[in-house]
Amino acid sequence: MSRTIQEIESEVLQLDAHDRATLAKSLLVSLEALTEAEYEKLWIEEGEARYAGFAGLGDRFIADVENIITHVRRYPQSGVRVSRNLRKRVLTVFRHDVLYVDALDEVIVVAVAPHSRRPGYWRDRLKKLG
Fold first, then answer.
1. Which of 53, 52, 57 is nearest to 40 (CA)?
2. Can you give the pLDDT at residue 72?
3. Rounded distance between C-alpha atoms, residue 78 and residue 35, angstroms
4. What are the angstrom distances between the C-alpha of 77 and each of 13, 47, 68, 85, 104?
């Protein structure tokens, strides 16, 4: 017999603070395998759950990201130059930037970055690209 998420949550909330924090860390680490777009979709869907009436925002976010990426693949120079090879495009509906490197024969998406949360977290990725 499988337990419901509510039963598991009730049991977890009975743990002491240290054990709950350890479990929370494990759960967060398990989300690191998600792509940025998948992570942002979950973030938006959490907002949907809190604010009914905004159904479908996660799917709209993914569609907005995909539209921008399709456009920059066709027109790589269309984004605003941030540095020598780095460009950005602002999503149409959401307050996020698609940051990408305009390489000679390809476009490399560096980040889908929110405007206000964790600014600049993606900068280390540029160093890895060389």
1. 57
2. 92
3. 24
4. 51, 34, 13, 10, 11
> Could you tell me the residue ranges of all domains in the chain?
1-33, 35-129
Contacts of 68 (CB under 8 A, 6+ apart): 89, 91, 92, 98
| Residues recorded for the chain | 130
Instruction: Extract the tokens encoding 90.
Output: 């602002």
Higher pLDDT, 20 or 54: 20
Cα(43)–Cα(12) distance, rounded to whole angstroms? 22
**The whole model's pTM is what?**
0.58
Tokens for 24, please give them: 């929370």
User: Which numeric CATH code is attached to 35-129?
Assistant: 3.30.2310
